[in-house]
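Extended Data, panel c. Modelled sequence:
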Amino acid sequence: MIALTPLALASSCTETIEPFGPVPTPQQLAWQRMEINMFCHFGPNTFSGAEWGDGSEPESLFHPRALDCRQWVDVAKQAGMQGIILTAKHHDGFCLWPSAFSTHTVAQSTWNEGNGDILRAFTDACRGRVKAGVYISPWDRNHPAYGTEEYNDVFVNALREVHTNYGPLFEQWFDGACGEGPNGKKQNYDWPRFMHTMSELNTQCIVFSDIGPGCRWVGNEEGRAGETCWSTLNTEGATPSDNKPAPEVLTVGHQGGSQWVPAEVDVSIRPGWFWHPGEHPKLVDELMEIYFNSVGRNGLLLLNVPPDTNGRICAEDSAVLVAFRAERDRIFANDLAQNAKVNAWHRPGHKAKNVLDTSYHTYWAATGKSAELTLEMDSVTEFDIIVIQEYIPLGQRITSVKLLYDFGDGLYSYTDGDEPACTTVGYKRIIRLPHPVKWRRVIFQFEGMAPPVINRIALYNSAR
């Protein structure tokens, strides 16, 4: 047997890298890796033309003529989405399931002679194909108990009803809106009780609210996370609704925050959240801009695609979504960095070349908070998009990324002066150059709160 030298033993060792700060749960990591999910706003507003119904709409108004939740799933799959969240109850209080705790539901409608159940049709259609989630608004402009302590019991019972009878559900979406009910009173939401109920019902469920705990509102409905976007947030003393951080804080998060609460970027494909005749979907170029500013800035994109009065996603929206998927596939089809030579100091067992493989759980671990990594090609290559991904199971660390290029006649900086190309990275950062550049070497200069851990760097040419 050949004896290994100390040098060989050292090179074969893989060092354990300790997490830095808060880290995602396995469920949060799986959620972030979904990248794009579908939102479906559907209810009486679809038929009235309103965005926020006042709760007085007759139940007979809700009458989809040709409901097909399987078609929603087909569209989502064709668009490259892995999850769908349905507005099971919006602010008007109308329940898309026959709730025992409300008299304003599908059971009181004329649709399917009062025997229909949209939520059942939806969850059945999703099963085995995409993950199903629900939006249940605590604001209820119809329920007579709203504005009293009794309503908190009603709402908790509705949560139990939905998650017990229709689960497991991958995400619970809590809208923080709190307005007046039919008696003119506002509700004092018992958020600790709501959250405790969810932890009892489904520990695997990602709970969305203004402050999480599973994921947070990004602070706007424009389809953009912050140029700086931390997945960490200080939530001590905060509650959803009236006592939440300011929208501009939610857009950015907190560097070194105490909790892992990543940003979910909700935006509609149409001008409104509900389907309205005469409105049209965004163009593919607009959706790509949203993608770069959401997924490309460490967020998850929740794109609203509302079913129409037939109970189907209309052909115009479906066509745009398919084209949106095709454009993403085109741009990110060919990673130009795959044949590059990679050089950087690394921790044992976590070599720099790991940034080029497609395995999520391999990564380059730098030796210090300031670290440099070089990609070098055999010949000149042209690109205009850079993708960088931190290995977030070990925390979000990077505070600055600077880029230098070698075109064959010396090094050039991506930015003027000493400005970084980006600040935060997180799960995924997409840097777009104003025009394609030709290069032989790219040097990445990282600064972090702890030594960076990078599991992917890729280069693309969007013009091809």
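Confidence is low (pLDDT under 50) at residues 1-11. This feature is highlighted in the accompanying rendering.
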